[in-house]
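Appendix B, Record 12. Input sequence as logged:
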Amino acid sequence: MTTALSPPLRALERPWAPWLRGTPMLWEIARAVGGGPFHVIHPATFAENLAGFLDALAAENIPGVVYYGKKANKAGAWLRECTRPGTGVDVASVPELVHALGNGVRGEAIAVTGAAKSGGLLWLALRHHCLLAVDAADELERLADQARDLGTTAEVLLRVRPPTAPTSRFGFAPDDLTAAVGRCAELGATVALRGFSFHLDGYDPVARAELAAQLIELCRRARALGHPASKISIGGGIAVAYVTREDWRRFTAGKDDSWFHGGRNPQRTYPYHQTPAGAAMVTAILRHDVDGASLAARLREAGIELLLEPGRALVDGAGFSVFPVQGCKASGDHLVTTVAGLSMSLSEQWKGSEFLPDPIL
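Logged structural output:
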């Protein structure tokens, strides 16, 4: 946690949050739950963020689906917002899938991702006609076996290993991908290859646009082999700006060991200010020029649907955590506090990094 020695790093907030803190409600909740910790969530802000993504697709005349990456925050309140046209939920486990179904999200609007899926997850996803991202030959075979037993068709995306991450354990390497496309054809009616997907580390819109353009070509080749390939997913990793540009510039320019308790200055942190962010990043991806034409133009010309899986970009500004302070002590020029709760409680955090925005006391 930053100290008074560091420049301010105030979190950007939507108007509802400071308004709520100015009412007695938080104290009333704290008394009701024995002090806390607890989380306050604001579904209307989630809905606003989601609408921004849908508007970004519509502005470029691109059909697509925005799947909420459920691991970012597991509250059920978000899921009701993902039942509108053009939206869905991205899940990676049986409990996540059951939770989405239980909150009214149809199976056809659920994308099942994650590596090494359990047999139970494959079975349930097939029963509800979910879209499955597959990234290993053995998983493809297990999926086909279950689809055959159930008398249904597995709706599949093949996950591509990014050229920039040749040693990644996620996604098919080029030769394995070619073999998987061929295998989908051999499996006949048990598997429908709907397209391809990828996930990139970092938050560069250019890298996403250029890899997406390569997936368009993969869809063309798959179609030539008889596959109904008309979807590409560019995954998540949509940037979020949690603090202002100027506050982040001052913080990163002067970051010093003395700002951190025990001098534990993290080597890597989440980039708390980024641009473009949110829906604006989607627009930047779609408008990026790839060999003389925007990605959006290439998608339209090829008749391909774009799938997105944002997580924290949809819950941006839509909640905060309340932690009771359990104790504090002086430590030189620091004030060390102990609170009940973890900084990663409300939203997924980078593991091994610090939560840097200033707390509000």
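The first strand starts at residue 38 and ends at 41.
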